[in-house]
Design goal:
The protein is mainly alpha-helical. The protein has one domain. It is about 70% helix and about 0% strand. Helix 1 runs antiparallel to helix 3 and helix 3 runs antiparallel to helix 4. The longest helix has about 35 residues. The N and C termini lie far apart (about 70 Å).
């Protein structure tokens, strides 16, 4: 087996492991807000490792640049979609998305007033 093949297998294994860890993490979480955090692993580490593997296999080709474009779109849109989904979960649960005193989902801490020292 050549070094090229071993490196390719390593990057594809990282991709598969990131996806499986993300799935298992989502299944273990009790609430959707917790499960959303596990989408980051396949959408960041997984797609980066897959893009590197495609570049190693095909070189600088149209396929590799399309994969790079998909990776960039996924990396940029992942945080936006996760935030919008979390806001939708919260709105469905509470009827609003802003943190308010007395919300059952999270503790909204009030900052103590800072004393000015001379």
């Amino acid at each position: 087996m050549s070094v090229h093949t071993i490196v390719l297998i390593v990057f594809l294994t990282i991709t598969a492991a990131a996806c499986w860890i993300g799935v298992l993490g989502m299944l273990r979480m009790r609430e959707p807000m917790q499960a959303m955090h596990y989408l980051t692993l396949p959408a960041s580490i997984g797609i980066i490792a897959l893009t590197i593997a495609v570049f190693l296999q095909t070189g600088a080709s149209a396929i590799s640049f399309k994969t790079l474009l998909i990776a960039i779109i996924l990396l940029v849109s992942n945080s936006v979609v996760t935030h919008a989904t979390g806001r939708a979960f919260r709105t469905r649960e509470l009827g609003h998305w802003e943190p308010r005193d007395g919300d059952p989902i999270e503790f909204v801490a009030k900052r103590p007033k800072q004393e000015h020292r001379s």
